[in-house]
Every structure is written in C-alpha cells, then in structure tokens.
Amino acid sequence: VHAAVEQAWAAFSTVNVVVSNAGYGLIGALEEYTEAQIQSCLQTNLVGDWTLFRAVIPRLRAQGGGRLLATSAIASVSNELGFSVYGATKAALYATCESLRGELKPFGIHVSVITPGPFRTEFISRSLDRAAELPEYQSTVGQFTAFLGKIDGKQAGDPVKAAHAVMQLAAAEAPPFRLLLGKYAHLKMRKKLQAESTEMDSWRQVGEPTDY
C-alpha cells in the first residue's frame, strides 16, 4: 500500500481521486471457516482499506482536498447466508466511511461508498474463497453456493457501465455518500429500509421507553 501511494504521488504530484477496491469473497457457514480464512478476509477487505485510508489521508489534507471512494457491496446492507464474514467486512467498511465523512469534511475531502449488486466480473469464479463444507449446511449455505455457481457469467450488472457511474461520482460537485449500482442493489436496499422501518415501529413501545 505505502509503495503504491508513494509511486502515485511521485508520478502525478497531486492525486484527486483514490479508490479502495481490493477485496474478495468468502463463502461458507461461520462454523465452516478456518481461522486463517477469517483473518485473511478481514485483513484484505477491511484492514487493507484502513491501511490505504491512513496512507492517503495526510497527503489529501496537505494538498487541500480530494475524493476518497470505497468499494463495499450490497451484502453490507442486506446480507446472504454464507456471507457472514464477507458481509461483515463490507458493513464495517461502510461504518468506517460514515465516520470518515465527518472527520475529513473540514479538509475538503469527500468520502463516498460504492455499493454494487451482482456484476459480471470474475468475483465468483476467481475471487471467491470457499470453506470446507459440512453436510449440516447443504440445505442452506450449500444451496446459496450452488446458486452463485449458476449465475456466474450471467449477472445483470455491466462492469463498464459501473465504471462510468463511478467516474460520474468522482467528478460530481455534490457527490452522494452512498452510490448503489444496479437494479438488484436498489431493490435490496429499498426492501431493507422498508422492513427495518416496519420492525422499528412495531417494537417502538418496548425499546423507546428504556431511557431514564
């Protein structure tokens, strides 16, 4: 990370947009993962982002601003069974950026989170680590794993169109904090918001009166 940052600023002197995009998937039941698989996913998908942010923020501050874009996933909003660790890293990345948005605003640094649904990339075939399967989870996580195999190469999301959308985000005068990519992500987000609003209202009489 630090070598790449040094090279970027040496080449361009000013870097306007930094995109944190490194990551990979981890599929399996939480019980099925090895400790090494969990730690590797956390290090890449979350600690890697933190390391990049900490490396570039001082430089962005010194030059008077810039754009910091983080690549999350719709699993951060509405997770699937088998993505307990992967979705957790993406949700934590969102929470990190939510804090950074306020921390960095006084320095002219805009923070945005890119949240795609399924896109026709090599995520499933090349960038998805798999846990050793236990028979107890074949009817749940196993089915979702099989589903991912069936949709590989058939995802609705177009990576080129996604790239153009991210370029629009990077150039926007008033960029959004979260940019959802694809119809699937928009549908999942809307359903999640509606479900949480309904649940919050139905349990309000239990949870709200717990203040002093």
N-to-C order of helices and strands: HEEHEHEHEHHEHH
Low-confidence stretches: none
Helix content: 40-55%
Q: What structural category do the secondary elements indicate?
A: alpha/beta
How many β strands by DSSP?
6
Strand order of the largest sheet: 1-3-4-6
User: Rg to the nearest angstrom?
Assistant: 19 Å
Mean pLDDT across residues: 96
Dominant shape:
globular
Taken as a percent bin, the fraction of beta residues is 5-15%
Distance separating the two termini: 47 Å
- Main sheet, how many strands, which sense, barrel? 4 strands, parallel
| Number of helices, where a helix is a run of at least 4 consecutive DSSP H or I residues | 8
Please name the defining characteristics of this protein:
alpha/beta; 212 residues; two-stranded parallel sheet; 4-stranded parallel β-sheet; 8 helices
Quick overview:
The protein is an alpha/beta fold and 212 residues long.
Walk me through this protein's architecture.
The protein is of the alpha/beta class. Helix content is 53%, strand content 13%. The chain is built from eight helices and six strands; from the N terminus they run H-E-E-H-E-H-E-H-E-H-H-E-H-H. The strands form two sheets. A four-stranded parallel beta sheet has the order 1-3-4-6. Helix 3 links the parallel strand 3 and strand 4. Helix 2 runs parallel beside helix 3. The chain is globular, with a radius of gyration of 19 Å. The N and C termini lie far apart (47 Å). The model has no long low-confidence stretch (mean pLDDT 96).
